[in-house]
TrEMBL record:
Keywords: Hydrolase
Protein name: gamma-glutamyl-gamma-aminobutyrate hydrolase
Pfam family, one: Peptidase_C26
InterPro entries in the cross-refs: Class_I_gatase-like, Peptidase_C26, PuuD-like
UniProt source species: Devosia ureilytica
Length: 263
C-alpha cells in the first residue's frame, strides 16, 4: 500500500473554477474560458471542475465540501457597487448571478479551510467578500494605465503590461523570489479600501493593488490583479502562481470513497 507521501504525489486534486453568466444562442448560459481550465490541468496538475454561478447561495457549502480548492476567474463583467455599500449604479456589463454566488463560495471555502485563489475579478471578489471596497479606474483617469484601448485585438489587450513592486516577506515574494515584475493588465475595477485580514503583496502604477493574501485564514487565500492564465509558459512568475495553487490544493486533498483502491 503506498504511503501518504506517495499518494500525495500521485493524486490530482479537484479545483473548482467559477463560471460566468453569458447568453448563448439567445438563452442564458454559463461559461468559462478554456485558458483557465487548461492552466489548472497543465500547470497546477489538478482536475478542473466548472462551478455554475446561477444557483442558490445555500448550495455553496455543499459544493466547496467536494473541492480541494477554488479559483475565481477574471471576467469582462464588473462587480455591482451595491456589494460594497456604494449607491453608484456601476458600469455594464454586470453579472448579478456571479456577484452573489462568488461571495457565498468565498465565505464557504474559508469556513471549510479550503484554498481560494483569485484572478483579476477574483481578486476584487475576495476583497469585497471580506469587507473591502472597489473603485472604477475609468472614473479616476487611471484606466489608460491598466487597460488597453477598447479597439485592441485580444493579443494586444493581454500584451498590455506595466511593472509592479512586490512587498517584502509576502507570499508573492516568497514564490517568485523577485522585488519587481512586469505583468499584463486588463482591468477597470480595482481595490479601493483593502479588506481587514488581507495584506498587500504588490502594487502597480499609482498605487493600484496588484496582489493580496489573507493573514488569518486556515487555508491560503491569495489573488492577483493580472492574468497568469494567459500564455504563461514563458513567464516564470505566472507558472509559479499555478504551482502554488496546485500545492495548496494537494495539502487539502480529500480522496473520494474508494479512491485509495485505485492506487
Amino acid at each position: 500500500m503506498p504511503n501518504s507521501d506517495t499518494q500525495r504525489l500521485q493524486h490530482r486534486p479537484v479545483i473548482g473554477v467559477i463560471a460566468c453568466g453569458r447568453t448563448v444562442e439567445g438563452e442564458p448560459a454559463q461559461a468559462v474560458k478554456h485558458r483557465y481550465l487548461e492552466a489548472v490541468e497543465r500547470f497546477a496538475e489538478a482536475v478542473p471542475l466548472i462551478v455554475p454561478s446561477n444557483q442558490a447561495m445555500a448550495n455553496a457549502a455543499e459544493i466547496v465540501g467536494r473541492l480541494d480548492a477554488l479559483v475565481l476567474t477574471g471576467s469582462n463583467s464588473n462587480i455591482a457597487p451595491r456589494h460594497y455599500g456604494s449607491s453608484s449604479q456601476g458600469q455594464a456589463p454586470i453579472d448579478d448571478g456571479r456577484d452573489d454566488f462568488s461571495q457565498a463560495l468565498i465565505q464557504a471555502a474559508i469556513t471549510a479551510a479550503k484554498p481560494v485563489f483569485g484572478i483579476c475579478r477574483g481578486l476584487q471578489e475576495i476583497n469585497v467578500a471580506l469587507g473591502g471596497t472597489l473603485r472604477d479606474l475609468r472614473e479616476t483617469g487611471l484606466a489608460a494605465k491598466h487597460h488597453a484601448p477598447a479597439e485592441a485585438a485580444l493579443d494586444e489587450m493581454f500584451g498590455y503590461s506595466h511593472p509592479i513592486k512586490i512587498s517584502a516577506n509576502g507570499m508573492l515574494h516568497r514564490f517568485v523570489e523577485a522585488t519587481t515584475l512586469v505583468v499584463n493588465s486588463v482591468h477597470f475595477q480595482a481595490i479601493d479600501r483593502l479588506a481587514e485580514g488581507l495584506v498587500v503583496n504588490a502594487t502597480g502604477p499609482d498605487g493600484v493593488i496588484e496582489a493580496v493574501a489573507a493573514t488569518h485564514t486556515p487555508a491560503p487565500v491569495f489573488a492577483v490583479q493580472w492574468h497568469p492564465e494567459w500564455l504563461p509558459e514563458n513567464r516564470p512568475h505566472d507558472l509559479a502562481f499555478w504551482h502554488y495553487l496546485g500545492e495548496a490544493a494537494r495539502m487539502r486533498y480529500l480522496p473520494a470513497p474508494g479512491a485509495e483502491l485505485t492506487q
